[in-house]
Structure formats: C-alpha cells, structure tokens
Design goal:
Blueprint: E1 5-11, H1 29-35, E2 39-45, H2 51-60, H3 64-67, H4 84-89, E3 93-99, E4 109-110, H5 115-121, E5 125-129, E6 138-139, H6 141-148, H7 152-164, H8 181-195, E7 202-211, H9 244-253, H10 262-294, E8 299-304, H11 323-326, E9 327-333, E10 341-348, H12 349-359, E11 388-392, E12 395-399, E13 403-408, E14 413-418, H13 436-452
Parallel strand pairs: 1-7, 1-8, 2-10, 3-5, 3-7, 4-6
Antiparallel strand pairs: 2-9, 8-9, 11-12, 12-13, 13-14
Helix pairs in contact: 2-12, 8-10
Length: about 475
C-alpha cells in the first residue's frame, strides 16, 4: 500500500524566517525538528511570488504561462491537469484543509459554492477556508465557526480598524487565546486526522493563513523585541546606466513606504516573527495528531507559496523577484525520517509537484514540468537545476544561481543582478556596459525554457 503523504503549507513565509534557515531571532521548534529528520532545500524559488499563480503551479506542475494565471484572478481550467487525479488512481484518499485560493475570493462569496470545482480538481474531502484578509468578505466553515464562537464581529472590527489606520497597523490580534483563524484550521485538520480511515493511504494538504499580513499574532505569541529584529535592507540607489523601461521599473520598485520609521519596520518584523512562531505551533499540533493516528512511517512536505519583503528596500508583501519575496522554505521528511541534509541546488516549486507523484509511485505526467527531488535524500549536493523560472503580472525572471534577470512582456531587461558579488541585490546591472554576454546567455536560456515548457495538454483518445 502506498505510504501516507502530509503536505503542510504556510502563506507568505520567507525562507530566512525559519530557525533552521539561520533565523536565530525567531522560534520555530517544529520546523527545525522536521528539518532534523529530512532534507532542507536552501534555494527553492517559487514559480510566482503571488498566491494564486503559485498555488495553481504547485497543483499542476505548470508555470503561469501554462495556466494563464499571472495574477490573483482566475482558476485552473483543465481540472484533469492536477496531481490529485494520479494520486487517487494510485489509491489515495485526498483531503484539503484550510486555505486553497484556487478560485476567486471576496464579494460575499461562499466557499461551499465552489465544492463541485474543488472535487473536480481531485479533492475527495474539502474543508476550505480563506486567508486572513479574504475572511472579511468570504463565507466558509471558518466564518461559521467565528460566528458560533461570538468572535466574528471582533475580527471584523479589528480588520476595519487596521484598514483605516494611518500607516502600518502594528498590534496583535484581539481574539481570545486559541481562537485565531489558524488555530481553527489546525484544529480542523487534527479532527479530520483523528477520524481518518487507516485502511486507505491518505494524502492530506493543510494550508494555513499565516504569517501573511496583517501581522496579527495571538497575544501570547507577541513576545519579540523590536531591537532583536534584523534591520531591513535600505532602498537601492539609482545606477547611472539605467534608462528607459529599466529606469522606470527601478524607480517604481524604490518609491514605496517613504514615511515608515525604523521603529515601525522593527515592530512589523517582531509581529511577523510572532505569526511565524504561531504557525509553527499549529503545525506542531497537526504533526502530533498525524504521528499518533497514522504513525511516523509517512512522508511530510513543508513549503510556502512566496515570501514577504518585510521592509527590505522599503517594500512590504510580495509580487517581486527579490530573494525575500521569491525564495521559499521547503523541507521534505521521508518515512521514519533520515539524517539531516541540506540541498543547496536551485529548485522550483514545480519540482515539489513532481516529487509528490514520484512518492506515490505515479508515472511522470507530460504536463508536469518539474523534476522529482527524491534524489536529494541520498545525494543532496547533486540535486538541482541549471535554471529556475518565475513569473508574475507581465514580468518573467530567470536565474542560473549566479545571475538573475527580469524581463517584461516586450523583452526589455528590467533587472540584472550578480548574486555572487551582490547577494543583497542592491545594484541593478540592467544596461550596464559589459553585461551583454550575460544577458544573451540568460535570454537564450529563457527561450529554451519557454519552448521546453510549452503546454502539452492532456488529450482524450477517441475510442
């Protein structure tokens, strides 16, 4: 019988804000313990630094240029293209708990109206919620629970206050202890696990809402001091060689949050740290229930869809290709664990899709463009790709690990960084004399990449 698979996902969780990734200022004992029994991927780049495109890519193993989802709109139109159908054919029962964001939210929608779509994607069981911001305008089992607990209006009032607050809203959640939305998602996962059928292999996906803004940890996790937070990277100077589209792009990148003070950035990072510790705590509850009910002879995959700038270059949130936004934490724990290892090679979140199929013993799918990472369990230093690709809005990023280039839909170079000489990405080399050979190398690789990943649709064969 295939072995159980548990996928744990946080939202907007930058890689360098996990203890085992070197973040000594934040407490993540659960994730650190998971890494101590598996492989940690140090250089995983998301296919898109934005929620819906990244999640659609993970579900299908395809890129935004395949799914058509370059922004937080739309849905996966080919419901047969997900990894869930091969898993079900392999004998798994599939369950989704928590945030999916695989279809539009807001506007008074009720997630339960999307159950036919979620089932068509390949989920047998669906216990779906929204992330923190969408919970204000989208109904689900989460809002039902909040209303039953008498805390929904408190939640709405707090988020309204945050929206109206001048400047960053920097205070913890007013909700009672244990009543945060992520507590509900974790508790829902635990209850499902405790009732799960042991006679059938289980694939369980749990999507938590944190540490996505508005940086509202429960009060008991609001314990971090501003002075212990690493300071954000300053906005970059404007190189003299930038011109045209690259100059306009650079000015747009550096024009944000001019009035946010150093103390406010530090407080934001302290609250984010509290949210990170809180989701780590929630993951601990889920893992404890999983190991108790289904045993330790199981696969566990932890990942996030994208990071958060958290004040780096005076920016917050995501949708940019800087390391804080595009690099994500990934940990893979095999059944019963293994000696801890670190894979430094370039990998992509579509590789996680291919890895799940490999774990389940499924045949490689023609429309899954990633490569299985199971080799990293034995040879972590020999695992990785020559290039990784990421896309958002009308921009495409390609990197070979040494250099990173961003082009727009007109094939104009907007960003070029030497990641070895400039790991903080402070000097944009786009248009600098002497970089022509690097640009040509990356452009050639990008063309090859796009041709190789041109969508190969699954076609039904006539009888």
């Amino acid at each position: 019988m295939p072995q159980d698979i548990l996928v744990l996902m946080t939202d907007q969780h930058r890689a360098d804000w996990v203890g085992c990734y070197g973040a000594k200022w934040v407490r993540t004992p659960t994730l650190d313990s998971l890494a101590a029994e598996g492989v940690r991927f140090a250089n995983c780049i998301t296919t898109s630094p934005l929620c819906m495109p990244a999640r659609a890519s993970f579900l299908t193993g395809q890129y935004p240029h395949n799914t058509g989802m370059w922004d937080n709109i739309g849905r996966v139109h080919d419901v047969y293209s997900t990894y869930l159908h091969p898993l079900r054919h392999a004998g798994y029962r599939t369950c989704h708990v928590g945030k999916s964001h695989l279809h539009p939210h807001g506007g008074g929608r009720d997630l339960r109206n999307e159950l036919p779509y979620m089932h068509a994607l390949g989920w047998d069981d669906v216990l779906e919620c929204t992330g923190p911001l969408s919970t204000q305008t989208t109904f689900s089992i989460l809002t039902d629970w909040m209303q039953a607990e008498g805390i929904y209006q408190t939640f709405l009032d707090d988020y309204r206050r945050r929206a109206e607050h001048p400047g960053p809203a920097l205070w913890p959640s007013p909700l009672p202890d244990g009543k945060h939305p992520d507590d509900f998602m974790a508790r829902t996962a635990v209850e499902y696990i405790e009732k799960s059928d042991l006679s059938q292999p289980l694939f369980l996906f749990v999507g938590l809402g944190g540490p996505h803004n508005p940086w509202d940890p429960p009060k008991r996790f609001d314990t971090y001091r501003n002075e212990d937070m690493p300071p954000p990277l300053p906005a970059d100077p404007t190189p003299e060689w930038l011109s045209g589209a690259a100059l306009e792009h650079h000015q747009n990148m550096m024009r944000h949050n001019k009035n946010v003070t150093r103390e406010q950035w530090a407080r934001m990072r302290a609250l984010y740290s509290g949210r990170v510790e809180h989701v780590d705590h929630c993951i601990g509850q889920i893992l404890e229930a999983w190991y108790s009910r289904r045993g330790r002879n199981t696969w566990v995959l932890f990942w996030s869809d994208h990071g958060d700038m958290l004040g780096d270059k005076s920016r917050t949130a995501k949708s940019v290709f800087y390391k804080a936004s595009a690099r994500v934490p990934v940990i893979l724990r095999p059944p019963n664990g293994c000696a801890p290892a670190v894979c430094e090679g370039l990998v992509s979140t579509v590789d996680l899709t291919a890895t799940l199929l490999d774990i389940a013993g499924c045949e490689p799918q023609p429309n899954v463009f990633g490569n299985s990472l199971l080799s990293a369990l034995k040879e972590p230093q020999s695992t990785g790709a020559d290039f990784v690709l990421s896309e958002v809005h009308d921009q495409t990023m390609i990197s070979d690990g040494r250099h990173r280039m961003v082009v727009n839909s007109n094939n104009e170079v907007l960003e070029l960084y030497d990641l070895a000489a400039d790991p903080d990405e402070t000097l944009n080399l786009a248009g600098k004399p002497g970089t022509e050979e690097i640009v040509e190398h990356l452009r050639s690789a990008l063309l090859e990449f796009l041709l190789r990943t041109a969508d190969r649709q699954t076609r039904e064969v006539n009888g």
